[in-house]
Amino acid sequence: MQSYIGQRKTEFNYRTVGVPVAIRYGSAKSGWSVYAKVGAAVNLLLKSRTEVADSAGSARSYTLSSPDSPYRKVLASVRGGGGVRYQPTEATWSLALGPVAEAGLNTLNQNPGGSFFKRSRPYSVGLEASVEFGGQKAPTVVR
């Protein structure tokens, strides 16, 4: 077990709103199929809060209009994923499930130090599920 002198728990809270754009490639047939997708997002940092445990006066909050915020107000990211899709016969809806990964293109800090390629950027990896409505019924093939 390691112990660091002077180390304190710090909490960071961020509130963002974003506009994602994605394209997906997959089969439109009914039954099981696979899909792949790629996209990008532009996010706006609305509010941030930093608080150090056991230090009552250490909390710092910033909003979109705060001129002294150490954080960027606009963040960009790319994302990609793939998975399986199921559409029942004669249905206009489908279910999709698969892994997704997102990587930030710029840092959260407004004025980061160090080399451009060595800077820490936000990322996420997760599992995504969706239900899609309004698709076309798969055509019936008579042989």
Mean pLDDT: 84
Net shape: elongated
Helix content percent band: under 10%
Fraction in beta strands: over 45%
Order of helices and strands: EEEEEE
- The helix-and-strand class reads mainly beta
> Which regions have little confidence, pLDDT < 50, spanning 5+ residues?
none
Radius of gyration: 22 Å
**Distance, first to last CA:** 69 Å
Number of helices, where a helix is a run of at least 4 consecutive DSSP H or I residues: 0
The largest β sheet comes out as:
6 strands, antiparallel
Count of individual beta strands? 6
Summarize the structure.
With 143 residues, the chain is an all-beta fold. The protein has strands spanning 10-26, 31-52, 60-63, 74-87, 93-104, 123-133.
Explained architecture:
- The structure is a single chain.
- The protein is mostly beta strands.
- 0% of the residues lie in helices and 56% in strands.
- Strands 1, 2, 3, 4, 5 and 6 form a 6-stranded antiparallel sheet that branches.
- It starts with 9 loop residues before the first strand and ends in a 10-residue tail after the last strand.
Secondary structure topology:
Elements: E1 10-26, E2 31-52, E3 60-63, E4 74-87, E5 93-104, E6 123-133
Antiparallel strand pairs: 1-2, 2-3, 2-4, 4-5, 5-6
Using brief descriptors, characterize the structure shown.
143 residues, mainly beta, 6-stranded antiparallel beta sheet, 6 strands, elongated
